[in-house]
Specification:
The protein is of the alpha/beta class. The chain is built from four helices and nine strands; from the N terminus they run H-E-E-H-E-E-E-E-H-E-E-E-H. The longest helix is centred in the C-terminal third of the chain and has 20 residues. The radius of gyration is 28 Å and the shape is extended. About 20% of the residues are buried.
Length: about 220
């Protein structure tokens, strides 16, 4: 209970110290979340790192969430840790497909690789990043695989070409037409699975077979 009260007080403190930057705070599942305006990310992160009541010196993670129906479809999520106060805070801001977010590599050096991962998987562009390249997908990869509208099969497939003696990229070729499971097809509509009759037959004749063995 004391920890919850401390986090609630921390949320109120951050909101009062940064009234033009903090959009709102929320305490759920024992965790403090702070929503901020996108242009304020550098100012907020610097404050959370340096203020003695915060002292969030460690950036643990940066990730993204995709909400395709929203006007700004992405949320960029920063998870911070204060070893001094033994507290954590989650900071969120909105971003669009063509909306740059200021890189915080100047505040937390560990943000370099984490921002590259969010760029690679979601396509969120981080302005002023020193080396914004893909980090998990291969060179020449098309699209951003953690977006909700990215096809499960991808756009290209990779194989080693024996004739060219190198790895080649080709458009995905599905071996069969995509099936729409409407639960009315012969498979989905069946009450019994193929092979059930064999199991029933074996169970029904088991005692007879054993009896015939005795007679022999």
């Amino acid at each position: 209970m004391a920890d919850m009260e401390a986090l609630a007080e921390l949320g109120e403190y951050i909101a009062s110290a940064l009234p033009d930057d903090v959009v709102g705070t929320e305490l759920t599942y024992g965790e403090l979340t702070v929503w901020i305006a996108r242009p304020s990310v550098l100012r907020v992160m610097t404050f959370l790192r340096d203020d003695q009541n915060c002292h969030f010196k460690q950036l643990m993670d940066i990730t993204g969430v995709d909400y395709p129906s929203r006007e700004e479809r992405f949320e960029v999520v920063y998870n911070l840790l204060s070893l001094k106060h033994n507290q954590r805070v989650r900071v969120k801001l909105p971003a669009g497909e063509e909306t740059p977010v200021d890189s915080i590599t100047g505040v937390y050096s560990t943000a370099g690789w984490l921002e590259r991962e969010v760029w690679d998987l979601y396509g969120v562009f981080f302005a002023n990043h020193p080396d914004l390249r893909r980090i998990l997908s291969d060179y020449g990869f098309e699209g951003h695989p953690l977006r909700k509208d990215f096809p499960l099969t991808g756009f290209v497939e990779v194989r080693y070409d024996e004739d060219e003696k190198r790895v080649v990229y080709e458009p995905v070729k599905l071996s069969q037409e995509f099936r729409n499971f409407d639960f009315m097809s012969p498979w989905e509509g069946m009450l019994h699975l193929p092979g059930d009759e064999k199991a029933q037959a074996a169970g029904g004749h088991g005692s007879g077979g054993h009896g015939e063995g005795k007679k022999g």
